[in-house]
Amino acid sequence: MNPTTGRTAALYGGLVAAVALLALASLGAGRAPIALLDIVPALWSRDDSLAALIVQEVRLPRTLLAVLVGATLGLAGAALQGLLRNPLAEPGVIGISSCAALGAVAVFYTGLSQAFPLALPLGGVTGALAAVSLLYMLAGRGESLLALVLAGVALNSLAGALTALALNLSPNPFAAYEVFFWLLGSLGDRSMEHVHLALPLMLPGWLLLLSTGRALDALTLGEDAAASLGFGIASVRNRVVLGSALAVGAAVAVSGVVGFVGLVVPHLLRPLVAHRPGALLPASALGGAVLVLAADLLVRMAGGGQELKLGVVTALVGAPFFLYLVLHYRRRML
Amino acid sequence: MRELQGHGIRVSFGAFEALKGVSLALRPHELVGLIGPNGSGKSTLVRALLGLQAMDAGRVTLDGRPLHAMDRRRVARDLAYLPQAGAAQWPLRVYDVVALGRLPHRAPWRGPAAADHEAVQRALEQTATRHLAERHVDTLSGGERLRVHLARVLAGEPDILLADEPVAALDPYHQLSAMNLLRGHAARGHGVLVVLHDLTLAARFCHRLVLLDHGRVVAHGPPATVLTAAHLGTTYHIGVHSGDHGGEHYVIPWSICREDPPGG
């Protein structure tokens, strides 16, 4: 028996328990006090008591979205780091997050978001899928990972510039204000409709990403050796890019831009799975859920007059961590 | 036991013709050395034989069946590739690196079976790397790393092994030990093709040599017939000392016989 298998199983178990506990805390946190023991019954209750109403209508969507968005960002980050064999990669690198954000901004800008509420997430998903099409047009269908990263960087800057242009030319300050706050990333005021919209896109995205585990393991030996083990680089690349676009597109669409989760989580968990990229995928999905649940709890508890935005908190934690990584790798390279 | 054949392989990169119609057969029990100056097309030929290189013309067959028409996992079980001993990207444990060799044998979405574990243990045993199993690959020396990668390949129990310059960066002890392992694999009934720069090792260990120059096979056969002063003078632009030692042919590169570098 490979000794790491037991350790990895224990890690998965620990992370599942952490997700469950934080989810419970997330359902319990809020202005209306609901006893911890009443939360679980309130989830299934069919009566229209206040507790059931609050837990089911207000808190459950927020908790579920924290789990879904966190799992997506962690999983996509781990898959991209495995594909590009670079610990500094994350979904933002290939331009998917910023294109999804641009799609949503376009919806704000055209006023479609007032016409029907789901226009916003739909715009985000459309932006992410447009990003994939553009990536393939720019990077070609070939096998070069460098072309993919360069095309992603270009796409990222373009989407950022267009988003800034939309804010710049905004017809009224309120629209600009609304877009600006949405871009900061938040899970507040979401409903089960958001969950229903995101989940059907996230599930196939997750499956695509999880299916690359062995190929990413093989890729640690280099592209030719991986291909000689039966894992062609083109197929892995397609699954990671499309899977990330579907899942991250849906995540950005319902939560705005929540940065750094995809960077930090795989990096923290990698040593705990003996650096195996395949085993890191499920671990990072669970770890992402833990981090976003915790950050969202922090956001809600720290709330004074003005609620802190989730994306602000993850960036405040994530950016110094990114800097630490850069310094760490620079020292290793010297 | 399988036979790998390349027929009239042509590969070009833009206007540059890397391989100009190369044919080659690799049979069981054989250790074949692929030699030739830098840029002669050795690595491209290995990639083509693995089915990883798009070809302009020609075909590669495994027991008479075209490689490109076969299932990729099936090919991966029969045909293994040992690249130059580079570091793995992540600091994996040695056991996990060797276990990667079992990937083509594993059922989808399932963990490793007992047979996989046994094959890994056998490979660690064969390459004398069992004591390294818990180490991380980035902490190994070049010689240890090559043995670990060889164990990874052997764990897959392939019928055919293609190795691209596996001993280039090793000291003489580890070069000899690695060549012994490759010859041992051939002796167990497998076909082994190894790209070599060291002509002395090629003469000492290989049953047969294929000499490439400018994308063409200029000589092939037993080492004594390939490593002649005439062949090495025109391809490598070098003079050699050669002779027989205990019935085995040896060569030692000795002098430059033309000022312009080969392969240009």
Q: Top keywords for this entry?
A:
heterodimer; A: 334 residues; mainly alpha; ABC transporter involved in vitamin B12 uptake, BtuC; 77% helix; 0% strand; globular; B: 264 residues; alpha/beta; Rossmann fold; 6-stranded mixed beta sheet; 9 helices
Summarize the structure.
The complex is a heterodimer of chains A (334) and B (264). Chain A is mainly alpha-helical and 334 residues long. Chain A has helices at 3-28, 36-44, 50-84, 96-110, 112-115, 119-139, 145-168, 173-183, 192-210, 213-219, 223-228, 233-255, 261-269, 277-301, 310-333.
How many strands, which pairing sense, and closed or not: the largest β-sheet of chain B? 6 strands, mixed
Average pLDDT number of chain A: 86
Biggest sheet layout of chain A: none
User: Ends of chain B: how far apart?
Assistant: 39 Å
**What would you call the shape of chain A?**
globular
- The total count of strands of chain B amounts to 12
Order of helices and strands of chain A: HHHHHHHHHHHHHHH
Largest interface between protein chains, with number of residues from each side: A-B, 25 and 34 residues
In round numbers, the mean pLDDT of chain B is 91
The CATH class of chain B turns out to be Alpha Beta
Model regions low in confidence, pLDDT < 50 over at least 5 residues of chain A:
none
**CATH topology heading of chain B:** Rossmann fold
- The helix/strand class of chain B is alpha/beta
Provide a count of the helices of chain B.
9
Tally the helices of chain A: 15
CATH architecture of chain A: Orthogonal Bundle
Question: What is the CA-atom radius of gyration of chain A, in angstroms?
Answer: 20 Å
